[in-house]
Amino acid sequence: MKLVERAVRDFSLVEAGDHVAVGISGGKDSLLLAAAMLELAAREDMGFEVTLIHLDQNQPGFDREGLNAAMARLGASLEVIDRDTHSVVQKMLKPGQIPCAICGRMRRGILNAYCAERGFTKLAMGHHLDDAVETYFLNLLFGSRLDPLKPATPASTHPVTTIRPLILVEERKIEAWVDEVGLQPVACPVCDSFPQSSRRDVKTFWQGFSELAHRDVYASVREALYGDPTTFAGAGVEKS
Predict the structure, then answer these.
(1) Nearest 5°: phi and psi at 155?
(2) Packing angle between helix 198-212 and helix 217-226, nearest 10 degrees?
(3) Max Cα separation, the chain?
(4) Cα(219)–Cα(170) distance, integer angstroms
(5) Residue 9: other Cβ atoms inside 10 A
(6) Given a cut of 90, is residue 230 above it in pLDDT?
(7) Do 131 and 149 contact (CB within 8 A), yes or no?
């Protein structure tokens, strides 16, 4: 919670009067995000509201009962948006193509439009520090640029800003929290069937390196990427 509150305050992710939609997939990251944002919203000094939303993409094998159980464990209600993106993505795929990128763009478009229609000013997503490290290396190795994942990203077509309150939190801490509170995350039945991807290769490399390191490389990377909040002041050029 200290790292979440630091991110919210340092990067001005939430302002008084905001109504924040919190994207819930059912995975461990979104479950922690839900718990953290609900806790912050309950504080009188923060002055914002949250609504948990879930995009049902009609993916075969999705554990709906598991998601409902996790929400009940958190004592939270969930708004469900029903869109059959799975069939659309399957028709667009080329032979051997991984669907995650197409699915992600479509999902973001639907969520941004929904937030704009409902009057949500912010859309909170569960990207964490490991996601940020992986994105940095992907941009460096395959995108020819030094470009970290931004704490906040304005949408290009809607008056909605995607915020990442978990951007300073290590994935290992999220895993430990889920185990501690006894939550059972719900996996994406599509993504988990595609083990080969550049992002997963980078994840494997980073996890191996961090385990072999003789000091806390997470703290070092966190300060290198996000230690100076002024770096991201007005950084609205990257579109979600």
Answers:
(1) -70, 150
(2) 120
(3) 53
(4) 9
(5) 12
(6) no
(7) yes
Over residues 50-103, the pLDDT tens digits come to 999 999 999 989 999 999 999 999 999 999 999 998 888 888 888 878 888 888
Measured from the Cβ of residue 231, the count of other Cβ atoms closer than 10 Å reads: 13
State pLDDT tens for residues 103-154: 888 999 999 999 999 999 999 999 999 999 999 999 998 888 988 899 999 9
Q: Assess contact for 62 and 44: CB atoms under 8 A.
A: no
Half-sphere exposure of 16 (CA within 13 A, CB side): 5
pLDDT at 221 over 80: yes
Paired tokens of 17:
């009067």
Q: What's this model's pTM, rounded to 2 decimal places? A: 0.89
Nearest to 166 by CA among 179, 175, 155, 157: 175
Reported as half-sphere exposure (CB side, CA atoms, 13 A), residue 126 has a value of 20
Long-range contacts of 92-97 (CB under 8 A, 24+ apart): none
148: DSSP letter? P
